[in-house]
Design the sequence.
């Protein structure tokens, strides 16, 4: 079990990518493990044949425990244990074609060369059926190839008949869906990642005094700027948020039991969805020094690596503030859960064009169509009050609405 | 492109590299004033001077030893053993000094040793040998053997530029018998094999003069499609090319002009047996000179060296297997 981060002490096998008997190349992924913070792939330390798997899926072991054994003196072409036990494949004799008379053969004919056996195996040929044109009637490579050709390609290794689509109402022998007893579906334990996320969320809700405050923001200028820069709105809103965090550092803090730490550096966590598997929050360290383009690049790289399961445990540690941005589906508002031990999290929902009241310089009101977004800030009432949360949001709003590239 | 003989191509390669790189110098018996026993270096001393085209005493160990010393201080000597057969006098300097100096002292030894080798012209036992196997067996040395004019030039340039000691086997019997189109200017031929003719039913693996014997023997053999693989480089041996050819053809004939036991072809055969077993449709067949000194007498020599007929017959038998 590798040590995937300075403080990691154990890990769980979640999948073996290679089975006993398989050849594995050095650096090829051999298994997938899960640690406290992250699921990751494990590259094989050497090339060779996997001869023994010692830790099964779902089992948790200490760092340093041997997980498997690889025979490094094996060679890729060698048959492995599974192949040894396999008898040569029996053939499906071709029905419509006349059987060729097997000519009288000497003892040499019964011996088949390695390549002839390999080809016969690949195509499901019974070598007794093949006429040999070699010395003493020996079956040569070209003989078995000619046999396969004459027989026609399609009969080699027929794929299994695909199962009838089980949702079809025309299932043979089935009655209507109302007949027969109702069988409740079988429950299964949640995936490890799902469990970890769940524990974290629960712990956060039980620890923090979570409240949420919302504010509506006009993102016209941000929309314009993002089109010019060729990036999404998120890095620009992130840049404005960082500006507001520098102005209100109490939002950029940790509360661990009694200890309250205000951070100068902004390590911005960005929540990345991993589809149905869950989500993960990689961290942009030192985000206060990055321009929107820089933030965009870093966020994109982290998201790509997150989806490819290539993050290291250090990539997901040390955030001082988190932004979550699930707005692409059109939802308006949410009550995000604070990532411990941070004291706040900002949720950016969908940008929706709406009619709003705008006041011109003469104090006249008019209706305009503007792209609007609702920013939701969940914050920990143990560390700050609603007034500060509101002022922080107002600062973000001012920066976003006054954004100039 | 110009059409040159194999010999002129070697000269052209040497001359081109000597013009491009003033560190290159030539050493050998009769190569300067006389222009070389076979005239490979004809005109060189006039162009490059006696400092760079050195006539040496008749002392192969001295020639190689001095070349090693020159290489260690940064020059790029190309030394010639007048006939490959005489290399045994310089054996210690090549195998124990040149070959091991990098390993022992961390000093690269960029020498090229030209060995005019091979028989077929009644040269007798001291002027007809193919000693490449001795040097394939010694760690630290590279060994190359061109069969065409184009490769002769490209490989000599590549050998001079290679920082390792390189044994360059130039086949005397090809000097004037083989002509080919040779690109002008400077170019390197990689230390890899070349497919001299594509084929599917059987592959003949050869190098040097035997490539031409193989091509002649299999040009028209009962309509069979026969590949000829020209190794060009013996160390490093192009294992991928060999195994690919075996995978494609499944029947192999390995030809050596050298004496059979432990010739280059023996290494090729061992490689195929170890790593190409699953692709074989018949035993690996070798055609080589028997383990005898190469005769002077013309009919005896013809009986000893692998002839077009012998190679042809070996191929025919294997095709029928």
Sequence:
């Amino acid at each position: 079990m590798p040590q995937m981060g300075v403080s990691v002490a154990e890990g769980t096998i979640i999948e073996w990518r290679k089975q006993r008997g398989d050849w594995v190349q050095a650096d090829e992924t051999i298994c997938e493990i899960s640690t406290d913070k992250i699921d990751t792939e494990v590259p094989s330390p050497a090339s060779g044949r996997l001869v023994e798997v010692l830790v099964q899926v779902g089992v948790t072991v200490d760092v340093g425990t041997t997980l498997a054994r690889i025979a490094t003196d094996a060679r890729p072409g060698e048959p492995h244990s599974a192949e040894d036990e396999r008898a040569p494949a029996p053939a499906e004799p071709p029905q419509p074609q006349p059987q060729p008379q097997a000519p009288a053969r000497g003892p040499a004919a019964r011996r088949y060369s390695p390549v002839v056996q390999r080809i016969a195996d690949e195509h499901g040929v019974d070598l007794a059926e093949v006429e040999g044109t070699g010395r003493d009637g020996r079956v040569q490579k070209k003989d078995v190839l000619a046999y396969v050709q004459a027989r026609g390609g399609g009969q080699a290794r027929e794929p299994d008949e695909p199962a009838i689509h089980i949702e079809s109402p025309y299932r043979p022998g089935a009655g209507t869906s109302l007949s027969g007893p109702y069988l409740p579906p079988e429950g299964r334990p949640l995936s490890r990642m799902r469990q970890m996320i769940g524990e974290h969320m629960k712990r956060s809700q039980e620890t923090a005094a979570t409240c949420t405050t919302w504010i509506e923001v006009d993102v016209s200028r941000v929309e314009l700027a993002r089109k010019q820069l060729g990036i999404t709105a998120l890095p620009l809103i992130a840049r404005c948020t960082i500006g507001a965090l520098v102005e209100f550092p109490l939002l950029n803090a940790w509360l661990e039991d009694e200890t309250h730490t205000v951070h100068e550096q902004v390590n911005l966590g960005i929540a990345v969805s991993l589809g149905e598997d869950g989500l993960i929050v990689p961290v942009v360290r030192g985000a206060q020094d990055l321009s929107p383009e820089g933030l965009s690049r870093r966020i994109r790289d982290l998201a790509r690596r997150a989806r490819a399961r290539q993050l290291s445990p250090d990539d997901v540690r040390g955030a001082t503030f988190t932004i979550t941005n699930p707005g692409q589906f059109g939802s308006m508002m949410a009550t995000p859960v604070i990532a411990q031990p941070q004291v706040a999290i900002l949720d950016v929902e969908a940008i929706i064009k709406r009619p709003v009241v705008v006041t011109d310089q003469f104090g006249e009101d008019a209706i305009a169509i503007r792209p609007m977004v609702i920013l939701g800030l969940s914050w920990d009432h143990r560390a700050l009050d609603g007034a500060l949360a509101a002022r922080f949001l107002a600062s973000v709003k001012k920066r976003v609405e006054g954004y100039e590239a | 492109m110009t059409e040159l003989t194999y010999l002129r191509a070697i000269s052209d390669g040497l001359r081109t590299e000597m013009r491009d790189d003033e560190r290159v110098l030539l050493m050998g018996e009769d190569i300067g004033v006389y222009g070389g026993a076979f005239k490979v270096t004809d005109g060189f001393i006039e162009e490059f001077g006696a400092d760079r085209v050195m006539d040496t005493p008749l002392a192969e160990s001295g020639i190689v030893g001095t070349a090693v010393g020159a290489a260690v201080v940064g020059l790029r000597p190309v030394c010639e053993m007048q006939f490959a057969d005489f290399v045994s006098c310089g054996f210690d300097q090549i195998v124990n000094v040149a070959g091991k100096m990098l390993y022992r002292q961390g000093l690269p030894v960029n020498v090229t040793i030209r060995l005019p080798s091979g028989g077929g012209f009644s040269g007798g036992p001291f002027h007809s040998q193919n000693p490449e196997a001795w040097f394939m067996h010694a760690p630290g040395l590279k060994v190359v053997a061109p069969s065409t004019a184009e490769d002769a030039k490209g490989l000599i340039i590549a050998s001079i530029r290679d920082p390792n000691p390189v044994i360059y086997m130039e086949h005397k019997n090809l000097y004037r018998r083989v002509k080919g189109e040779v690109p002008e200017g400077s170019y390197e031929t990689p230390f890899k094999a070349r497919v001299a003719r594509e084929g599917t039913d059987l592959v003949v693996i050869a190098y040097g003069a035997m490539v031409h014997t193989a091509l002649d023997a299999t040009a028209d053999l009962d309509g069979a499609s026969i590949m000829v693989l020209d190794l060009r480089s013996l160390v490093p041996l192009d294992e991928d090319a060999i195994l690919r050819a075996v995978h494609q053809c499944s029947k192999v004939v390995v030809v050596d002009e050298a004496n059979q036991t432990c010739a280059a072809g023996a290494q090729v055969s061992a490689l195929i047996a170890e790593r190409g077993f699953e692709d074989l449709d018949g035993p690996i067949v070798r055609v080589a000179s028997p383990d005898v000194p190469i005769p002077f007498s013309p009919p005896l020599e013809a009986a000893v060296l692998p002839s077009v007929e012998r190679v042809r017959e070996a191929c025919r038998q294997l095709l029928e297997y």
Summary: The radius of gyration of chain A is 32 Å.
